[in-house]
Amino acid sequence: MADRDPDDIKREIDEARNQLASTVDALAVRANPRRLADDAKAGLVQFVKKPVVAVSIAGVGALVLVVFIRRRRG
User: What's the whole-model pTM score?
Assistant: First the structure.
């Protein structure tokens, strides 16, 4: 094995440590449960705000209401 300068080895170790710290920080941000929940909520709200989806949900709600009222009366 070739002789390596101890300062070069220390510098490489420091660079690797900094890279690893950055990677761990990025993973912690991406895996944050609060962020994941907020992203899922935002995606769902955006999906529901589409006109076709909103009308479909309203239709299903009206159908459920009619069925509930009929069963209640019958």
Answer: 0.50
